[in-house]
Write a structure and sequence with these properties.
The chain is α+β, with helices and mostly antiparallel strands. 27% of the residues lie in helices and 33% in strands. Strands 6-7-8-3-9-10 form a six-stranded mixed sheet, sandwiched between helices. A four-stranded antiparallel sheet has the order 2-1-4-5, covered by helices on one side. A four-stranded antiparallel sheet has the order 11-12-17-18. Helix 2 packs parallel to helix 4.
Length: 332
């Protein structure tokens, strides 16, 4: 069993609560993504699971075993860092084998495990090279290889793709997902990038200021956000938030949320707004405009003709309602 359970976990630094009573159950063999802005506490949670940070209150279980007071090396986890953390003077083979050598595993077993990991990660021809002779993507694969040979119960990954360029990030996203399918092990992945979260996770944990805002599948997080934070964090461009009374008196005291792709032209009920900026993004066009003091955007086909003003319409089914004070979703 490689499940991970957090029960009322808190982290306090200098009397400041950084993680505030987090409850989370991560299933065996699940790929779960912790996502949120910088400073939300996602990396702190990961480090507490790893044992690199002490927890102030609560319990962490890996499998059925409480690990609060267990040393990191005895938790049967592997940590993949943002910086790769490779030894520059060692070859790829030596870097991958390092953890096994420290555990005094016999040479034949080490060689077998290194070869297997190199095959999985397409690194066989690079085993005798040093990190400086590799690309960023190859270095990241070496870091993954060092984790694979340990055969851990749980993989912990802290922003592992943030140092790569956009093209490599896309490639490595699919490689990590394939790796998860091959290894059938629990993966806990931290990122600030909502695209990574939506494309990689079986479930997503959205965090803000040390609190879990929502835990759900990517589809549910996108289509059924529980509050304005989740609705605004996931989606590009982000959801439009409009004072309800600007649209209709019946929405007084509410915030109306509308995804940019749901702002359409040519509907039955429409209003005209002055265009601020237009951005062409290949097959799409993003049009920015204001509704009262609310900055809004519409995602339209690139062929849409845009002048000084635009007529926008919205279907009632595409409107989200939020309580203005609590910011929680209102379901009708």
């Amino acid at each position: 069993m490689s499940s991970v359970v957090l029960k009322n976990v808190k982290k306090i630094y200098d009397k400041k609560v950084v993680i505030d009573g987090v409850d989370l159950e991560i299933k065996d063999k699940e790929f779960i993504v912790l996502v949120g802005a910088s400073g939300c506490g996602k990396s702190t949670i990961l480090r507490m699971i790893a044992g690199l940070e002490e927890i102030s209150e609560g319990e962490i279980l890996i499998g059925d075993k409480k690990v609060n007071n267990i040393h990191p090396k005895d938790r049967d986890i592997a940590f993949v860092f943002q910086s790769y953390a490779l030894y520059p003077h060692m070859t790829v083979r030596e870097n991958i084998a390092f953890g096994l050598k420290m555990r005094k595993v016999d040479k034949a077993t080490i060689e077998k495990k290194v070869q297997e990991a190199a095959e999985i990660l397409d690194l066989t021809e690079y085993l005798d090279r040093r990190p400086k002779q590799l690309s960023g993507g190859q270095r990241q694969r070496v870091a993954l290889g060092r984790a694979i040979v340990r055969n851990p119960k749980v993989f912990l990954m802290d922003e592992p793709l943030s140092n790569l360029d956009a093209k490599l990030r896309v490639q490595m996203r699919s490689e990590i997902k394939k790796l998860h399918e091959k290894l059938q092990t629990t993966f806990i992945y931290v990122t600030h990038d909502q695209t990574e979260a939506l494309t990689m996770g079986d479930r997503i944990v959205v965090l803000d200021k040390g609190h879990i805002q929502q835990v759900d599948t990517p589809e549910e997080i996108y289509n059924n956000p529980q509050n304005t934070f989740v609705a605004g964090f996931v989606g590009s461009p982000q959801m439009n938030f409009i004072d309800g009374e600007l649209l209709d008196e019946k929405y007084k005291g509410l915030t109306v949320g509308i995804r940019p792709e749901k702002m359409i032209t040519g509907g039955e009920i429409k209003k005209s707004y002055n265009v601020d900026i237009t951005e062409l993004l290949g097959s799409e066009k993003i049009v920015y405009f204001n509704i009262g003091n609310n900055k809004c955007s519409a995602k339209l086909p690139a062929t849409t003709e845009i002048k000084d003003s635009i007529e926008i319409s919205v279907n009632a089914d595409d409107i989200y309602l939020f309580d203005k004070e609590s910011e929680k979703r209102i379901y009708e």
